[in-house]
Design goal:
heterodimer; A: mainly beta; five-stranded mixed beta sheet; 0% helix; 46% strand; globular; B: mainly beta; four-stranded antiparallel beta sheet
Chain lengths: 113, 113
């Protein structure tokens, strides 16, 4: 599985867009980029995933560069409730049962009032 | 839908005691997972079950056993608890395998004295 690199922490003002970067320079052609977040003491929560094209859902947008070596998760109007650790994970989608997600330490996002 | 539920939420054990952590999901998912999360480390996979009747070791299986009781339930047993097993344990499920979106329970906070 491709390794990901994320900044350990970021700050964002409430109401502004939060842009969380992720580098995955060794990603292979069939690997998706997944984003999860973990609000303090809770279980991780799925946010969004994508392969090549940019994706948007009710929670966030995912921008993947053309060479797929990096991506950015965008929270368009961050609120205090978005304060969490955000994990970027790259994982093959149709692999066999001996594959597994590799969870790094993620980015700790603090949304400030 | 309750999603993924875990019991208990908190537990304190003495070294050498045994216990079983329970997990159930009501999303009719095929795959279920047990992770542990320690300070300063990412989530680490203990065991997983790709489908009912099958289980496989993850990254850190030593000291644990699992049972996939039926499609809904996946339990994790500590036969002889050790202080190194003090951690937060998360159960997750997905419709298919590791590459699919995983849904997490609220976690069990275990302390072994």
């Amino acid at each position: 599985d491709a390794k990901t690199t994320q900044p350990p922490s970021m700050d964002c003002a409430e109401g502004r867009a939060a842009n969380l970067p992720c580098n995955h320079s060794t990603i292979s052609g069939n690997e998706y980029v997944y984003w999860y977040r973990q609000i303090h003491s809770q279980g991780p929560q799925y946010i969004i995933h994508g392969l090549k094209n940019n994706e948007t859902n009710e929670m966030a947008s995912l921008i993947i560069t053309e060479d797929r070596k990096s991506s950015t998760l965008i929270l368009p109007h961050a609120t205090l409730r978005d304060t969490a650790v955000y994990y970027c994970i790259v994982r093959g989608f149709n692999a066999g049962n001996n594959r597994k997600l590799i969870w790094g330490l993620g980015t700790s996002l603090a949304v400030n009032p | 839908n309750a999603g993924v539920t875990q019991t208990p939420k908190f537990q304190v054990l003495k070294t050498g005691q045994s216990m079983t952590l329970q997990c159930a999901q009501d999303m009719n998912h095929n795959s279920m997972y047990w992770y542990r999360q320690d300070p300063g480390m990412g989530l680490r996979l203990i065991y997983y079950s790709a489908s009912e009747g099958t289980t496989d070791k993850g990254e850190v299986p030593n000291g644990y056993n699992v049972s996939r009781l039926n499609k809904r339930e996946f339990s994790l047993r500590l036969e002889s608890a050790a202080p190194s097993q003090t951690s937060v344990y998360f159960c997750a499920s997905s419709e298919r395998g590791h590459g699919d979106t995983q849904y997490f329970g609220p976690g069990t906070r275990l302390t072994v004295l």
